[in-house]
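Supplementary notes for students who missed Thursday's class. We covered one full example, reproduced here. Read the sequence, then the structure, then the short commentary at the end.
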Amino acid sequence: MGRMGLGEPAVVAATARLRGAGLVERRVSDQDPRAVALFLTARGTETVGRAQETYRVLNGLVLDALGIDGRARFAELLDALDSAVASLPDRPDAESPGRG
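Structure (token representation):
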């Protein structure tokens, strides 16, 4: 939804998978007792920590392999890709199965 470009069915399905895996749970919101919100479980917090460490190691390996000049070029290419994606018109197929 919103910034992620996902429709409600995709978010509902992803939430169900995260709950099924024991990574998040539904509880009364800390800010609004009338609302229900998603919270990380202990297992979810542990999983996020492992993922962050994995990404940190991978990013270090990639940046080391690129060297200083390669890093600058890589940043330019990522900026170009980001601009290209940002300029794409909204597509009606953005919520099709397999896209989120």
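Commentary. The helical segments are 8-20, 42-86. The beta strands are 24-28, 36-40. If anything here is unclear, bring it to office hours.
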